[in-house]
Structures are given as C-alpha cells and as structure tokens.
C-alpha cells in the first residue's frame, strides 16, 4: 500500500517514507536505517534472515519514526502487541496497530503514553479495516452522544451462516470459510464469538469511554444454532447473524455477542462474504455503515490512513 | 439545537454563542448585537417584526461571526442563498449552509472567497442532514480515489414508492408524503428528480473535484413508472428506487438520476420513510452509509457540527 500510494503521498501530502525495519515470524527481524528496498521484498526476496531480537533494539537499529503493528490477536492478553506499541512510543515513534488486543487490554495506558510522548497511538484498522469508524467520532460527529451500537463484524461466521442457508452442512460451510482464507485453522475464536467480543469491547472502550472488560461481554457463539433453524427462518425472509450489541446503562455499558434473528430489511442482515456492518445510535440520529466484501488491502489502507493522520501537521 | 447542546458546547469544547440576528419570511429581519433571547422565540414570542433589509446591513447590525443559511432551494440559480453566503464571508463571518444550491452554482467562488478571508464555508447539512459525508473525505478517507457513488437521497419519492408497493395509488401515495411533511405542496422538484440531481451534482463537484453542471445530469423522475410495475417487482423481492449515480470517466463524471430496479439485498433498496443511503466506490474498498428515518433535528445537528468545525481552533 505504501508503494502503491507513494506518488500520491508525495504530491498531495508532501509525505515521503523509507522502510527501515521489518519483522515477521517467517523472515526474522531486519533493520537498516539507510532503508530496505520494498520491491524485492514484495517479490519474495527477503534480506538475510537475522535472529529474533528485542523489539527495542530492533526499533533503535531501524531508527523508527513510525511502527506498524500487525501481529496476530491474542484475545486474552493483547500481548506481545502491547509491548511492541509501548516500545515504539517510548522510543518516540508513532504507534499504529491493526491488532485490537491492545485496545481491549491497555487502551488508557497506551493513550496516556502517546499523549506524554507527543506521539500518536492509532488503531483505525482494528475494526472494519480502513473504514473510518474511530476517526468518525471526534471530527465527523462532534457534540454527539453515542447511546449504543450493533454490528456484524466477523467474516468467518458470516460465511458459515450464508453457506448453511444455501444447504451446506456446518462442517462443509466451515471448510468453505477456511478455503476462502477468512477462517483460521483453529476457528474457535470466530465460532465462539471471541473475535466479535474483542471488537465490541474495543468500540465500547474508545467510543463510549467506559473501561469495560472482555469478561463482561455476554457471549454466545454460533455452534448451538441448528442448520434447520438457520434455513427455515431464511424462507420466512429472515436471517441469523452473529450480532455485537452495546447499550449505555447509566455509567456502564451492557455488551452482548450472540446469534440474532434479523429482518431481511435490516442493513445488518444483508451481508455476504467478508462484508461487515455497524449501526450507531446517537442522540441526534442513527446511521449504519456497511463495508462491501473487502480484501486484505482494505486493512493495509487502514494502516496507511493512520500513517497520514500521524505524520501530517 | 444550540440551546439543547449549550452545556455540552461549553464544557466539552469551551464554545459559547449568542444569537444576534434572525431572518425569516414569517418574522422579518431582526438584529441585536447584545443578543436575542432564544427561548421566547422558540415558544413563538418573536421580537417586533422589522421590514426586510439588505442582508449586508442586517449582518453588520448583528455583528455576525457566523451565518447559518437555511433558505429554500432554488435549483436553477442557487439564489438568494449564494448572495447571503457571499455577504457573510465578505463581512468576515463563517458561512454555514443547509442549502445545496450554492454548491451547485457557486462552489469554487465561495470556497475561494472563504480561503481569502480565512473563514469557513461549510455545507455538511446539504446532503443526508448531519451525517458526515463531506467531512468524511479529507480526514476519514485520506489518500483515496473516489471512483463513483450511488445513492437514494430523496425522501418524497421514497415514501411514494413504498406506499404504492403497499397498494396505494400514486395520488394517494403523494398525499401521504405531503401529510408526513416531507413533500412540498408543489412536489415537482422531487418527482422529476431535481432534488436528487442537485444533490448528486453537489457531491460530484465537492468529492470528485469536477465542475459538472446541473444540466449535464441525465435525469428521469418517477412519474412514468406504473403502479403495476412497482408492485410486481416487489413480489419478486426487488424494489424500484430513484437512484443518483456518478462515475468518473477520465477527466469528467457521468451523472444520472433515474428509477432503478434494485435487489432487496442492496443497502440502497431497504429504505423506508425519510431514510436515505449512499454507496461510495473507492479505489481501496466500497462502503455504504445509511441514515435511519431522521427528523428535522438531524439537519439542525448538521449545522451545529459545522459551527463547531468553524469556531474550534
């Protein structure tokens, strides 16, 4: 995405970048303050593999101004992503993440650290990829009160429910989701609603300003939904979806993740494939935002948009 | 809306306001730099009626820092709203409008004047009320290319098509829309697609940066759609909606307004009452935004949000 948008970043925003570090499970940890060439890397020609290092040492060697954190979610702890982001901020780099774990487990700490270091901690890519959800509120919807939200935010369960509606068995539908690359080899985090619960918690913490914990989300996955039930409501013009819901109740927020029966006319019901949707109920009106069948570049764009928000004056 | 949000504006944004002028067809033109009391006015106790004055004289007497322009649309000229907004900017006041005519007929001129005077020309309330459409692009979706959009943006035709689907005649459906207060006594601007065409043109001019003219929009209203046709497709799970569509074609934009047959699963199809929706096709993904059954306070909020954007540092 940085390569694809390089000319536009230069011309429209006067922003230039240099790739000075790269760390993946596959390729090890590489740092070079003079810059790594992105095109060979995109073509699979990686720099010589180096042993795993301490994240601080790696960031220092790279002389990082910005860290993009895109490690896998560990729902129960948010680690090691939290440590990566803390290290970046402590070393005066902006910290941008596509991993929602740190919001759920360390939002206030990371936000305070960023404020103290006058750097940005940004996380637009964590929910609905690059669709501006978190960015919408301070600037797009000033002086509003968010009373609640409801969303269908998990692709795997979306694909599975759709395939069962079409007549496939649960097992075949799961295989289909795995072949599409949306479901993990161990799909428990999706099927049991953990992924949805983490997203709902992150949204409630940031947008409703309540320190809710993941354990407080009432969570029911889709495993107990029978294939017959899923198909029979479809004939009546309705659909089951795994819905996240949050509602302000005084000082706190009641948060649920569960299969819900939706009317076909509901914007949350008409989602296929990797599409997702969220409805925000504000004091002034209610709006829904739908993301249509995004690919992996949608997440990359979310990170790029945060990069621009961080480095622009 | 200013009264309802007064405490929040003070506490959250340190913003205070004073109402120093008021001009309506009903109550004439009133100005008092010491401030008019809003609560009696909201209760129908208007200041003594004054004769209609020149807008410049009125703004000067009011010592206006901000003008809220909410006159009715004159699709063919954009007047007198353009003159009102120009006068405000020339007198160093921010110019905020809910009237889309000035965007269609004088966008570049007003934007240039605002830039020159270091004041804001803002217009979020012109399309989908206070839903952040125009605000979304510079900040929420940086470095994207908008390739096209499609929207259902007119309430009157929405209500009429829904009522015909339910079995009412065109005439009864129109009366229903008028009794709901969404249709004008002369509903031609809605039925013939003028309102939709003005909105599509405004969106194309601002978001796609092309100087398209209202006459370039290919426009077909809903008058020639037969009641039978509308009802028969409904039975097949489809709906007619009056759709605005814009698509980039090289340096220009092809823009249409016409009744289109939509699948029930389309977010643009599932709109009742005053709801509206728009889909944006960007290079990085496609998103839809739906506004659910807003009332008149949604437009007022749009003006308030622009007010905050104008006066905040």
Compact description:
By secondary structure, chain A is an alpha/beta fold. The first copy, chain A, has helices spanning 6-13, 38-42, 55-62, 81-90, 101-117, 136-140, 155-165, 170-179, 188-191, 194-207, 227-235, 296-311; strands spanning 21-24, 28-31, 66-69, 94-97, 121-122, 146-152, 218-219, 238-249, 252-263, 276-282, 286-292.
List keywords for this structure.
homodimer; 313 residues; alpha/beta; 3-stranded parallel β-sheet; 37% helix
Q: What would the average pLDDT of chain A be, to the nearest integer?
A: 94
Structural class of chain A: alpha/beta
For the largest interface in this structure, which chains are involved and how many residues does each contribute?
A-B, 43 and 42 residues
Q: Encode the helix/strand succession of chain A as letters.
A: HEEHHEHEHEHEHHHHEHEEEEH
Quick one: how many beta strands of chain A?
11
Detail the poorly predicted runs of chain A: none
SS field, number of helical segments of chain A: 12
How much helix is in the residues of chain A? 25-40%
Strand order of the largest sheet of chain A: 7-9-8-6-10-11
Description:
Two copies of one chain form a homodimer. By secondary structure, the first copy, chain A, is α/β, with parallel strands linked by helices. In chain A, 37% of the residues lie in helices and 21% in strands. Chain A has helices at 6-13, 38-42, 55-62, 81-90, 101-117, 136-140, 155-165, 170-179, 188-191, 194-207, 227-235, 296-311, and strands at residues 21-24, 28-31, 66-69, 94-97, 121-122, 146-152, 218-219, 238-249, 252-263, 276-282, 286-292. Chain A has a six-stranded mixed β-sheet. The first copy, chain A, has a three-stranded parallel β-sheet with strand order 3-4-5, with helices on both faces. Chain A has a two-stranded antiparallel sheet with strand order 1-2. In chain A, strand 10 and strand 11 (286-292) form a beta hairpin. The relative contact order of chain A is 0.14. The model of chain A has no long low-confidence stretch (mean pLDDT 94). At the A-B interface, helix 1, helix 6, strand 11 and helix 12 of A face helix 1, helix 6, strand 11 and helix 12 of B. Strand 11 (286-292) of chain A pairs antiparallel with strand 11 (286-292) of chain B, so a sheet runs across the interface.
């Amino acid at each position: 995405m940085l390569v694809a948008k390089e000319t536009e970043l230069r011309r429209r925003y006067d922003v230039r970048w240099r790739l000075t570090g790269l760390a993946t499970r596959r390729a090890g940890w590489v740092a070079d303050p003079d810059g790594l060439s992105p095109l060979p890397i995109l073509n699979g020609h990686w720099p010589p593999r180096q042993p795993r290092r301490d994240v601080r040492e790696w960031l220092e060697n790279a002389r990082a101004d910005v860290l993009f954190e895109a490690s896998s979610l560990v729902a129960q702890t948010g680690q090691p992503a939290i440590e990566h982001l803390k290290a970046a901020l402590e070393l005066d780099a902006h910290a941008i993440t596509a991993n929602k774990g740190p919001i759920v487990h360390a939002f206030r700490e990371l936000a305070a650290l960023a404020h103290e270091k006058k750097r940005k901690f940004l996380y637009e890519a964590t929910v609905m990829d690059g669709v501006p959800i978190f960015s919408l509120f301070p600037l797009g919807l000033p002086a509003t009160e968010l009373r609640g939200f409801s969303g269908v935010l998990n692709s795997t369960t979306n694909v599975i429910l759709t395939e069962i509606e079409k007549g496939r068995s649960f097992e075949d539908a799961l295989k289909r989701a795995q072949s599409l690359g949306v479901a993990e080899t161990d799909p428990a985090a999706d099927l049991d609603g953990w992924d949805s619960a983490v997203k709902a918690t992150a949204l409630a913490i940031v947008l409703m300003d309540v320190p809710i914990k993941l354990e407080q989300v009432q969570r029911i996955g889709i495993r107990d939904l029978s294939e017959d039930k899923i198909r029979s409501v479809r004939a009546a013009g309705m659909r089951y979806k795994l819905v996240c819901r949050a509602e302000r109740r005084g000082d706190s927020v009641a948060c649920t993740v569960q299969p819900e029966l939706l009317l076909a006319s509901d914007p949350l019901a008409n989602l296929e494939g990797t599409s997702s949707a969220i409805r925000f109920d504000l004091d002034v009106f209610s709006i829904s935002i739908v993301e249509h069948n995004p690919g992996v570049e949608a997440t990359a764009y979310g990170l790029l948009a945060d990069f621009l928000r961080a480095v622009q004056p």
